[in-house]
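Handout, section B. The chain below has 231 residues.
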Amino acid sequence: MTDFVIPPAAIASLTVQGSSARFPVHRIYCVGRNFAEHAKEMGAEVPARGTPVFFMKPADAVVPDGGAVAYPTATTDLHHEVELVVALGRDADGEIALTNALDLVFAYGVGLDLTRRDLQALAKEKRLPWDISKGFDQSAPTSTLVPAAQAGELSTQRLWLEVNGELRQQTLLSEMVFGVAEIIHELSRLFALKAGDLIFMGTPAGVAALQRGDHFRAGVDGLAEFSGHIA
């Protein structure tokens, strides 16, 4: 048994549909500008084919199954970004071929990539990294995961988000610039992908501010949905 000089932190984890066992989160990879209309509303160019945009969040940013999400510090402009979430159940042995990429997928879900938009805008203006706008505490509320074998065909399904009963974001998953297999392939060229990794696949147009007390509900039709509120 390994001794530690301080008690190790608990492993961040998510619930899995049909199982009492939980999914341990290793890393959270996020895809930027993966829906053309969102890229346009942010004043950014749509990435050329073969060059997806990536950033990361800490594993313990997940908020399992929704519920209360704390309004973060140091911002007055918290934005929602609803996304398909991909959970990997196998390690990648180096660079994974595009044809084999989906073999790594254990499950799918839906999540929110919460963003401190004012801090992101300031960082972009000064050409500085914008990690603090994305990788903060409780910035990745995530639904229960649905095993891939139960998920069925997702490309024609609708991704959506409601805030206080009002539809804010919606799109078909077929509108993603880069699909799941392409993103896994590209990530495997940059990182040693591991079982336990999550991939947030990017958000459609319609991002907007969340206020304290707002209630949200997000989902992918036929797959999963979850709800919560900003505390």
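Note. The chain has one domain: 15-230. Compare this with the example in section A.
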